[in-house]
């Protein structure tokens, strides 16, 4: 009898999540919003409330609602993602001028390079979660320690990556992905070798240092550094690609990443008091970083592997549809990057609230992030539905390719709002340092795409593959929401039910404010009315 009840409660909770935040206007967490008493004990209560806002709340939330705090972190993170996407297009353009062989080489090498990036991000994911918690606790020294241990972890993973990237291993990889042209394989081998052997450390260290900005909630500084890095990278491409070929693009990326890492460490020390100094590696700290980062890194690797298999299914219909999928991904990158930005923002605010030992406020912040992410993604979905054919035609001259890309975009656009929910609650689980559940959901959800695509391919053709990609999001989004609801957050009552009954909202209460603020404000208002 309990299972149906839990199911109904889950549906009701999701409904409240989506519509609850639009019933009240957004409010700022400022002392002026706290009702001051007129005399006696009410004056003392107002002073205590002001002290709570000024001293006991992380700096990210002073003068901001949960939504505003998430947005402050998210929009620079989105911009950084778009800059990286633009850099990829610049690389492809400059390498494409060398010839079709070189362009095919970087295309074939993309999965191997993506794996190098995933291993590099492993340490930064853990540092982000630990830094957010430390910032919530008001301990910038712990942030510096987390970054230092993350750099040690980056060194460890880069040595492992370089050891695995032997010429024979890379040659085996290109045979696996079906490269038969020896010139393409040779150029791709050089690109992967430089990235894996010489780029793993600067790429990972740069991401690790940038995670410190995310933890503090000051991603605007990271955005400025990323923008300078992109400009530097593009300039180095012009210098290094002509004499070195595709390897020159890899060297340009490596050099720019190393400079970005050093710059980030200097800015963290100068502007934010996070002084990263050499210290001994801590096995305990690195185990903690691995425990947080490994599940998400594994999710990224699994996600890429599934797309390799789906690519084979697409090619079985017509090889031209592979180009359709590529164009679709290029345009879908806007929605994906927005979702990733909100994931970063949610991880930061949840981690900071947990650092202050306020799990209820962490949950309210995650709900607020989901609402604003949905509100952002709905117009993106509508624009995609409206302009998919013209956008696809802009990137593809072949009518068959553009039609396939437009069909892909129109199918996946329906689940953009759910993709936002998935990203937000994956970020919430990261902020809570409980990422294993999200990996298991990705394992099941992304794995389901393979048999589902095979089934629908027989009846719908290539549109069946596009539908399989969209349908699995219908599972992953509520599953990750459920995972966060079931997670036992630090400082939370062990007897808390998975879906506690929601108390009726009081008149004038803003769901976007921390619970400690709304409850104290409501009590002050009631006292004043008496």
TrEMBL record:
Q: Which domain of life is it from?
A: Eukaryota
Where in this protein does the record put region Disordered?
490-530
Taxonomic source organism: Chrysophaeum taylorii
What protein name applies here?
Multidrug and toxic compound extrusion protein
Classification via NCBIfam families: matE
The Swiss-Prot or TrEMBL record describes its family as follows: Belongs to the multi antimicrobial extrusion (MATE) (TC 2.A.66.1) family.
- Top-level taxonomy: Eukaryota, Sar, Stramenopiles, Ochrophyta, Pelagophyceae
Q: Which residues form the signal peptide?
A: 1-20
Q: Does the keyword Transferase apply?
A: no
Membrane-spanning regions, if any? 105-130, 142-165, 221-242, 248-268, 289-313, 333-356, 368-395, 407-425, 437-458
The reply to whether Membrane figures as a keyword in the UniProt entry is yes
Q: Which Gene Ontology molecular-function terms are recorded?
A: antiporter activity; xenobiotic transmembrane transporter activity
According to its record, what are the GO cellular component terms? Answer: plasma membrane
Compositionally biased, Low complexity: which spans?
519-530
Q: Report keywords, A-Z.
A: Membrane, Signal, Transmembrane, Transmembrane helix, Transport
A Pfam family matched in the record? MatE
